[in-house]
Every structure is written in C-alpha cells, then in structure tokens.
Amino acid sequence: MARRATRARDTTTFAPLFRSRHDSADSALRTSPVIDAPSVLVFWLPAGDTLPRDDAATAVDDLTYYTEQVAPTLAANDIKLMATKAETVFVALPNHTRRPILLSGLDYPYGYLLVDPGGPERILTGIYADDELLDEIQAYFDLTEDSTSAKPHITT
Fold first, then answer.
1. 39 three-class SS
2. Can you tell me the distance from the alpha carbon of 73 to that of 15, in angstroms, rounded to the nearest whole number?
C-alpha cells in the first residue's frame, strides 16, 4: 500500500505505539490492557519489529492513516480507541473476573481488535482500508450508516 503523504501529522494517540526505541511509554504499551467498554484496539506486536524496515514503516503509516479516518466515528459512538503492543488483552467481566484474548500467533503481528464486553471479540489482522475498517466497525458494533453525527441527548 502506498504511504499517505497528505495525512494530518497529529498522531499523538498512536505515536508511542510505533516507537523504534524502547522507553517508558513503550513499556506502558506492553502492559496488557483491560477493556471494560466498547473499544477498538490497534495492536502492533513485538513480532512486527522483525519486519524489514521499509515494510514496517509502510504498515505503520497505513495503520495510523486508516485509524485516523475512522476515529471520528468511534468518538461519536462512545467507542474507545486504544493502542497496545501487548500480546494478551483482558476483557473485564461483570463478576470481577477477566477473560484473556491472545493476539500472538495470528496471520499478521498488527491489526485491530474490536471488543464489546459481554460478547465475542473480532480480530482484524493486517491492514484494512478506511472504508473496509468502517464497514467492519459498523457491522460489529451495529452502528447505523450515519454514525459520524453526534448521538441525540434524550431528556425526560
């Protein structure tokens, strides 16, 4: 996939995910997150660091670009957007237990995890163009086509 040269450079949400040097932010991303609300988690596992530099850079650019394109839809629907390098993610269950989701050993060491606690997760490995990613998100979270507009406030 071609790199996105025209995208906005404000990628502070994902910048720590793709650091090539290890620092304190990197170690925080390796801590297994606990998901307790509808979430889309962008993951880049340590195995991705073994890709050739150009391939990894292209994958990082594409993941970042396509994620930025769907972020407004996620925000409008109160779906958390998270990032991790952890190979295990936990889903918080109502009885104060956690269900693990293993991300290692998949087709690609990067992609997306869609989670709505209380239901099955959906793992999307590799790169998804923004329209494909949006289709997957809309289907998984049962969103309407016009899901980028703000939700109405119900008053009683």
1. strand
2. 20
**101: three-class secondary structure by DSSP:** strand
Q: 132 is in which domain, residue-wise? A: 16-141
pTM, to two decimals: 0.77
| Residue 82 C-alpha from the chain's centroid | 6
CATH number at residue 38: 3.40.30.10
- Amino acid identity at 48: G
> How far is it, in rounded angstroms, from Cα 106 to Cα 121?
14
**Which tens digit of pLDDT belongs to each residue from 20-37?**
444 444 555 668 899 999
Distance from C-alpha of 146 to C-alpha of 15, rounded to nearest angstrom: 29
Across-strand partners of 83?
42
Bridge pairing between strands 88-92 and 34-35? parallel
